[in-house]
Hints:
The complex is a heterodimer. Chain A is α+β, with helices and mostly antiparallel strands. Chain A has helices at residues 15-27, 47-53, 88-101, 122-139, 192-202, 216-219, 236-248, 263-272, 294-303, and strands at residues 68-76, 82-83, 86-87, 106-117, 143-151, 159-169, 183-186, 228-230, 251-255, 286-289, 319-325, 329-333, 338-340. In chain A, a hairpin with a 2-residue loop joins strand 2 and strand 3 (86-87). By secondary structure, chain B is an alpha/beta fold. Chain B is built from 15 helices and nine strands. Chain B has helices spanning 5-14, 33-36, 39-50, 71-76, 87-96, 111-119, 132-140, 153-159, 178-194, 213-222, 252-255, 257-266, 289-293, 317-320, 325-332; strands at residues 55-58, 81-84, 101-104, 123-126, 149-151, 171-173, 199-201, 223-230, 234-243. In chain B, helix 6 (111-119) crosses helix 10. Classes of the chains: A alpha+beta, B alpha/beta. Chains A and B meet through strand 13 of A and helix 1 of B.
Amino acid sequence: MKDGLIKLSHGGGGVEMQELLYDVFKILPKSNDWRGRDQDAAYRQWPGSALRSSSIAGGKGGAKEGQKLVFTTDSYIVDPLFFPGGDIGKLAICGTINDLAVMGARPLGISLSLVIEEGFAIDDLKKILRSIAAVSRREKVAIVTGDTKVVEKGGVRGIVINTSGVGAVNHPVDNSGLRIGDLIIVSGGIGEHALAILAKRFNYQTKLKSDCQPLWRLIAPIKDYLTACKDPTRGGISSALNEMAQKSKVKIVLFEKQIPVKKEVRAMSEILGFSVYDLACEGRFVAGVPKNKIAKVLKILKKLPPVADPPWADKQKPAFIGRVDKGRGVILETELGKRILPMPEGKLVPRIC
Amino acid sequence: MEVCGTHTEAISRSGLRAVLPKKIELITGPGCPVCVTPQRDIDAVIGLARSGIPVACYGDVLRVPGTEMSLEQAKASGAKVRAVYSVEEAMVWQKSEPKVIFFGIGFETTAPMTASIIKRGLVVYCAHKYFPPAMLALSCDPQIKIDGFINPGHVSAIVGLKSYRAIKKPQVVAGFKPGDVLLAIIMLLRQIVAGEAIVENEYRRLVRPSGNRQAQKLLADVFTPADSEWRGLGTIPKSGMAIKRKYVKMDAEVIYGKVINRYFAKSKVKSHQPKADPPGAEKSKVCRCGEVIKGLIPPEKCRLFGRACTPEKPIGACMVSREGACRIKYEYK
């Protein structure tokens, strides 16, 4: 890419596009398992062989009967594109890795589709690609195929990214498996992504950064103990837990004092008038754990190293925040009493993913 | 009576009502600025948006149903409508859309910021209101039995304590933590027992007795009191903020008066408030936001509450706004 701006011709299928793609491929690391990155579609051996041959942390050797292929997709339109703790690229690759991870599926490969506005700075595109590459390299999950389009000025705001991902799992952990008596955990502090975005938007001076991080290496060692799992993105833990309670046909009781919330998150959410429970996280999961496994799960999580590079490295701070009872809905036990924690509705938050 | 939407939300969020003795009843008053904005203003701004004028507004007002549609629906059908978190975002938008207007709603808390953008050359449709006159009207209403007021914390940060002295009821300006509200209730109870009716300040960490003089100066420079209609309460004298003549070029109602009238003439929208429901109108079919706002009935007494009227498909403004009594009751029930 000659430094400068994206032009319509970069999406035209001709010489300029080939040059753009050549530079894109130079930034994004290749996969050992997938072929055809520059073809119409990528291909690889069936997941069973991957589990035998791969060395990524969490992979088990030996293919098992009844293995399942998991497939997910997501699009990203976050504004601003660059925020403390990440950018739209990091968000996209982590988002898709996490959608696979919360199913208990090992990510095998990701597709990357870019829709870029004419006039977009190529330097910014490179930064975004480098963010994607950094996660891809560290997590050993390759971008194996993709597409690039350029639209006229005003057609999109800057850039829109779609990532799809495939993963492999023997026993999927879905989000409807909660059982009465299970306990609820969250893997860390809530609301940090949403407020990092808002802080940037309003120019608030804060050390808060997005919690955006890939979750596979946290979930892999505990996935067999989980009865249900979900990542609380848009709508925060209110949305995730209400959905899990509804699908599992149970009631979740949360202990407000035990839900980890950073001081900055509490302060900014009060200023802006949001409930912290409705705020998106992009590097957290909530899960149901049988009572007799909770100590083991929390111990494993606390011992795991950070999944990010400095200066964003964070020790894991999982917390036990609730229990599953007979009934319906989500109840929050506050300092003074109890109240319903509803599914968030129509609340206005900036585009965050 | 607590008269601030933020108090209503804070009280419900903490579950405070559940721990109060039965002899103390916390009534929710008209503290939600969106809820008390008359239908005419909502319709007028929708009319401007549909006539091609870009409109910046606070998020809460987007979904309030006008006579034909909401601002959100107008946006979906092509009108340039944008929800902003602050007036500064409207100023930024003005750079690419010079004709943008800002829909100013709220009390003394938000009005100074609107005043500042009027002075900086942004046209405003002003539906701001002064809050103490509404409290005075409520305190004189024989239908409403109030022993004391929990006064709004943020409005008081602007106006100070003086503006409330005409109201001859026990009053305490309170902060928003559960402890603040409880302390304010204790202070009110002491006044009631002692037969006093003064204005006390529990929220001393933020509210000065003289208020915020700079904000008051800004308000006085840009606005002048005018009689104003409050949805559910009727017309309250000298309770509306009218833009002063020296800033008439920033007054959307004046400079776009013909556009608004043309819209009202063309559409089904009437320029005056719809007639009151006929006597004996079935209560079950009628939105009772007006009575809810005055604290005469709790939201659940309205037959539409939770049935025909929910946050997903609101009928009255009280269900739309995040500070609306019906919305808060629905979410925290």
